[in-house]
Specification:
- The complex is a heterodimer of chains A (486) and B (462).
- With 486 residues, chain A is α/β, with parallel strands linked by helices.
- Chain A is built from 24 helices and 13 strands.
- Chain A has three domains: 179 residues, Nitrogenase molybdenum iron protein domain (Rossmann fold, 3-Layer(aba) Sandwich); 123 residues, Rossmann fold, CATH 3.40.50; 139 residues, Nitrogenase MoFe cofactor biosynthesis protein NifE, C-terminal (Rossmann fold).
- In chain A, the strands form three sheets. Chain A has a five-stranded parallel beta sheet. In chain A, strands 2-1-3-4 form a four-stranded parallel beta sheet, sandwiched between helices.
- The relative contact order of chain A is 0.09.
- Chain B has 462 residues and is of the alpha/beta class.
- Chain B has a six-stranded parallel beta sheet with strand order 1-13-12-11-14-15, with helices on both faces. A four-stranded parallel beta sheet of chain B has the order 4-3-5-6, sandwiched between helices.
- Chain B is globular, with a radius of gyration of 23 Å.
- Chain B starts with 7 loop residues before the first strand and ends in a 25-residue tail after the last helix.
- The chains are: A alpha/beta (486), B alpha/beta (462).
- Chains A and B meet through helix 4, helix 5, strand 2, helix 6 and helix 7 of A and strand 2, helix 2, strand 4, helix 4 and helix 5 of B.
């Protein structure tokens, strides 16, 4: 039952936020807050499940529902992965009025069959949505029957939109992997330095800045869940030695589940920011050695970190003169924003604030400490969500020179004629690892120092105070000539 | 126009839609509500219904988009969503002070069979703070129709809510225009100018040129930035005539005529010589003035443009997909200059497209278009056509909704003599790039017809 599955996700013992709650609050779940009719923003559970799993590039992602669920959203999230493009094609049963009346299960089965015969994917992921959930379409059974009859894994992802938020959907998506995919394939090349990266979506192909670092250390990525992964990688993910949890908010249940089921330890880390990248590499090495890898891995890792950090800071120093003193508003979900804050401060920028909407208490503490490090001595603020009107005022009043945020708030900055840079999943530049931080700083320089900002802030000639025409100024402007007459 | 056997308009029977062409009816309704000043569309559904539509509209228009949700949960769906509608209306009024709220149902609430319109009466009766806001309810289940249908239903609902049912004395210089969803903000501006040339003033509903034309306002406005004002809409009964543009505006035109007695002229499109000639005739009759010199000169330029351009179109094979009225405008333009319509795909039923000069109009998706587009010189489709075009090895010209990977598409003018002239040139240039890349027109030097994917200098493969 979906309700049991949701309850188990709400009960997540490894979630910091959850641990801090009372028993009563925990039962209420994490999806109820924020859903105020007429004042809500953000995606639904289906959205969350879909984006968490979409980066599995070689499977058919089939959305069972009316056109809105896939027709209004497909091909909006690309990963940088080269190779199969099947994940970008947009598959849906496009339920019609007749399907709603007669039930959609048969249509779903036929759609799965067509997808397999036409596109021959290693697996089909079937996403439940609100309308078929409401009319009682049982996708679990359809998927089971399809798997048996068609000879390919057909995975039910049971996260209809109305069960909750996008974040809950992320977890339900992860749960589907744990329940139906991980552990279904035994590879013949298991190694002592195999790891999985969980909650890494390879936005704009940015993982390409991290993978070579691991390769140089002889560490192999068994599965990157889900960016850059193929179906078989995830199916064999249970054979890795260590799991790194990049975005713990999204898939913590997968990490915990794999620890319980397969004894794989996990840690939480990040590849955003110089310090965090180093810390993550260090932790991976340490944990692998604890699990039996050669002890020299630790020294080799330290050597690599020293070399890469020096290179990165040297490269970034070039941008410092052009970024020094500029004011930044960091407006993200707030997850791990402190690692970016540190890099900005190193550039002499003043981080006027960062949002911590989706952060745990621990995250908030770290973000707060990071904001105290502003070299200007002025401490940045922790923001919850800033209403658009207030944000617009901040830019108009010159409180920030640039905003780093997702596309949704882009136009608040632009309408206030203020520089903006995308740091969300739709962006086109990769910011991970050492190279990614250099890239982020480079992109900021390009954006903030673009001559267009001076241009667009010029007043129109008719809006300018007509200096030359007012009597007082006419006199002063004409002084040389007037002087001659005097 | 040349005479030919009617095209068959057939729905592809398949369970699996691949690369959907269709977007949802609520999204179309939201877009229509964007064309009313001070408005806030509100979807009665799960918050994802709103989030997807919002992101798509933001990406297409490159503007902040006001759009809210009643945030239905599993529990409220089962128990009934009236409370959510009530809370949403009260919250939206409190936070954004809109003049109009466009309340569109979704597949979720329609499946349960909510009586949204009946609920609304009760809600208004017990919440006096809603007295000053106009609420326009419209039923748009996602499983019925697509963008055009949602747009058409919303416009009809706006008329039924705001335009009084009475025959008013007609003003000498006012005309109503019911604009279709395929008209860009640029098209609306152009049409208003054309109408002004006849000494007439237009009430254009919906008017995206005021709200989504990409201007930079001096303050932050939480609702639409502009659009048709409520007073203008209420006064539509005073106009001398109404012009409805596009098949999906027919019903709204009839509704307005029935309510007010203002005669409606249905125009199928405003792109193409004959089509614009018909607009001129109507405006000349309504205004009692001859067609102004400026427009006569533009017509003459268009005639020349059609001749200059037709060399590129003659014999060229075109694949086109989009909402029916957009397809009608583009397809008649290119086939009117000798191009062959090799593949025509629309997302929803559109019997009127049987008049197109082609054998078959397919009701389907972009997979169907790709399947039929092999060997074509150009594919005309929205931004989602990029992968299907690549697969079929055909250059892609972006038109329709959404266009998320190009700037300026909202200012593209495709109507009137001037807009038709520029569109003919743009399309002809795209075809000339193709011919250039393929060698001579038709066959290349090697005697083959090279259908390797090529990149137009303006339309890069994504």
């Amino acid at each position: 039952m979906i309700s049991d599955r949701i309850a188990s996700v709400f009960n997540e013992p490894d979630c910091d936020k959850n641990r801090a709650k009372s028993d009563v609050d925990r039962k209420k779940g994490c999806a109820t807050k924020g859903l105020t009719p007429g004042a809500a923003a953000g995606g639904c559970a289906f959205d969350g499940a879909k984006i968490a799993l979409q980066p599995v590039t070689d499977v058919v992602h089939l959305v069972h529902g009316p056109i809105a669920c896939e027709g209004n959203s497909w091909d909006t999230r690309n990963v940088g992965t080269k190779g199969p493009m099947i994940y970008r094609w947009g598959f849906t049963t496009d339920l019609s009025e007749l399907d709603v009346i007669g039930g959609g299960e048969k249509k779903l089965y036929r759609a799965i069959k067509d997808a397999i015969s036409k596109y021959d994917p290693p697996a089909v992921f079937v996403y439940q949505t609100c309308v078929p959930a409401l009319i009682g379409d049982d996708i679990d059974t359809v998927c089971r029957v399809a798997t048996e009859r068609l000879g390919k894994p057909v995975i039910p992802v049971n996260a209809p939109g109305f069960v909750g938020s996008k974040n809950l959907g992320n977890k339900l998506g992860a749960q589907a992997l744990l329940d139906h995919v991980v552990g279904t394939l035994e590879p013949d090349d298991v190694g002592s330095t195999d790891i999985n990266i969980i909650g890494e979506y390879d936005v704009a192909g940015e993982f390409a800045a991290v993978e070579p670092l691991l390769e140089r250390l002889g560490i192999r990525i068994r599965a990157c869940i889900t960016g850059r992964s193929r179906y078989v990688d995830i199916a064999a993910a249970h054979t890795a030695q260590v799991n790194m949890m990049v975005c713990s908010q999204a898939m913590i249940n997968l990490g915990r589940g794999m620890r319980e089921k397969y004894g794989i330890p996990y840690f939480e880390g990040s590849f955003y920011g110089i310090g965090d990248t180093s810390l993550s590499l260090r932790t991976i090495a340490k944990m692998l050695v604890e699990r039996g890898a050669d002890a020299d891995l630790i020294d080799r890792t330290e050597a690599l970190i020293a070399e890469e950090e020096a290179k990165a800071w040297a490269a970034m120093a070039e941008y410092k003169p052009r970024l020094e003193g500029k004011k930044v508003l960091l407006y993200t979900g707030g997850v791990k924003s402190w690692s970016v804050v540190h890099a900005l401060q190193e550039m002499g920028m003043e981080v006027i604030g960062t949002s911590v909407r989706k952060s745990t208490e621990d995250d908030k503490g770290k973000a707060k400490r990071a904001l105290q490090q502003n070299t200007t001595g002025k401490m940045g603020e922790l923001f919850g969500s800033i209403p658009n009107g207030e944000m617009y005022r901040m830019f108009k009043d010159g409180e920030a020179d640039i905003m780093l945020s997702g596309g949704r708030s882009q136009f608040v900055a632009l309408k206030a004629r203020t520089a903006w840079m995308d740091i969300n999943q739709e962006r086109h530049a990769g910011f991970e690892g050492y190279a990614g931080m250099i890239e982020m700083v480079r992109q900021m320089d390009i954006e903030i120092n673009n001559p267009v900002w001076e241009q667009v802030r010029l007043p129109a000639p008719w809006d300018e105070v007509p200096v030359a025409l007012t009597p007082v100024h006419t006199a002063s402007a004409a002084t040389p000539l007037a002087g001659a007459a005097e | 126009m040349t005479h030919h056997a009617p095209a068959s308009v057939t729905k592809v029977r398949k369970a699996l839609s691949v690369s959907p062409l269709k977007t949802s009816a609520p999204l179309g309704a939201a877009m229509a509500f964007m064309g009313v000043e001070g408005s806030m569309p509100l979807f009665h559904g799960s918050q994802g219904c709103t989030a997807f539509a919002l992101v798509m509209l933001v990406r297409h228009f490159r503007e902040a988009i006001p759009l809210q949700t009643t945030a239905m949960s599993e529990v409220s769906t089962i128990l009934g969503g009236m409370e959510n509608v009530e809370q949403a209306l009260v919250n939206v009024v409190k936070r954004a002070q809109p003049k109009l709220i466009g309340l569109a149902s979704t597949g979720l609430t329609e499946t349960r069979g909510e009586d949204m319109i009946g609920d609304l009466k009760l809600i208004r009766a017990r919440n006096r703070e809603l007295d000053d806001v106009v609420v326009v309810p419209v039923r748009t289940p996602d499983f019925s129709g697509g963008l055009e249908m949602g747009w058409g239903k919303a416009v009809k609902a706006i008329i039924e809510t705001l335009v009084p049912e009475e025959k008013a004395p007609s003003s000498q210089n006012r005309v109503n225009v019911l604009a279709g969803s395929h008209m860009t903000p640029g098209d609306i501006d152009e049409l208003r100018d054309i109408i002004a040339c006849f000494g007439l003033e237009a009430t254009i509903l919906p008017d995206l040129s005021g709200s989504l034309d990409g201007h930079v306002p001096d303050t932050w406005i939480p609702t639409t930035l502009g659009g048709t004002t409520l007073d203008e809409i209420r006064a539509m009964g005073w106009a001398k005539a109404t012009i409805a543009i596009g098949e999906h505006m027919r019903l709204s035109g009839e509704t307005l005529e029935t309510r007010t007695g203002v005669p409606t002229t249905q125009l199928d499109r405003l792109t193409g010589l004959e089509a614009v000639d018909r607009l001129m005739t109507v405006l000349s009759q309504v205004s009692g003035r001859p067609v102004p010199t400026r427009l006569r000169r533009q017509r003459n330029q268009l005639v020349d443009a059609l001749m200059d351009s037709h060399f590129a179109f003659g014999g060229a094979r075109i694949a086109i997909a989009g909402e029916p009225d957009m397809v009608w405008a583009y397809a008649t333009l290119v086939s009117g200059m000798g191009a062959q319509l090799q593949a025509v795909v629309v997302p929803t039923e559109a019997p009127f497209l049987s008049a197109l000069d082609t054998a078959e109009v397919v009701v389907g998706d972009l997979e169907d278009l790709a399947d039929r587009a092999e060997g074509c010189d150009l594919m005309i489709a929205n931004a989602n056509g990029r992968l299907p075009a690549h697969r079929a090895g055909v250059p892609h010209f972006r038109a329709g909704f959404p266009i998320v990977d190009r700037v300026g598409s909202n200012h593209r003018v495709t109507i009137g003599y001037r807009g038709t002239r520029d569109l003919s040139f743009t399309l002809a240039n795209a075809l000339m790039d193709v011919h250039e890349a393929h060698g001579t027109h038709g066959q290349d030097e090697q005697g083959g017809y090279g259908h390797t994917p090529i990149t137009l200098n303006t339309e890069q493969e994504g």
